[in-house]
């Protein structure tokens, strides 16, 4: 899908200042509840895993504990795997996929891998169904220790505290129609740039790290997900969202250079999943199942190829 949209905030060609950010913020409203939807499910898993509070957000008096689940005992002889969801809070199947994996499948890996899961990295954005945080900052372009997004810096601090080296990190995302209709135009307006129309791919795909290519790992994930939902084809230019398709359902980004979440562990195996929940060929439940299948395939491959 493509859609041209002149964003209603700001002056075309001029980056936003404090007044425009405040105007944007005033348009955001709480549409769902982190403390109702997500926290009770994390709390319910505390009988099996350590529930870790690794930080807190405080936005205009609204506070959000940042929560992780980790194996009670990190065995030094085992590899460590990280599962993250909700870096972009509006990408629902990433949040629910991480939770569902922990609820239904994580126990299969007991004694095989040290698991650390952060189901909802950006709870304020989860509640507003938004890509950005309270400050109109995209956490997933700001994963660096001195960055402006507390969602990102708190997670970096948590990762730095883990003593065991990471073998695998899977970061669960979605690509939605609102990327073209809302978030692309908002980003262009915020930055004082021209909005480039974006073609939203119909289907699942993954993003490899161009600085650490792992093609067999990516294809193992695609093969597993293909039994659950359809894989995004390349567009007429052989691309997905402006990046060349390097293999079936696979594109590449320089993760560290772009400040993306997938770069924070230095793991051998990293991937970012992208589900398309707006497709008439899928459902919310199928999108969650696809995320769970991706997590399982990623851990299975990493363990088989350490």
Automatic annotation (TrEMBL):
Belongs to the peptidase M14 family. The active site is at 274 (proton donor/acceptor). It comes from Sphingopyxis macrogoltabida. GO terms for biological process: proteolysis. This is Peptidase. SUPFAM superfamilies: Zn-dependent exopeptidases. GO terms for molecular function: metallocarboxypeptidase activity; zinc ion binding. Residues 30-306 form the Peptidase M14 domain. InterPro entries: Peptidase_M14 (IPR000834). It comes from the Bacteria.
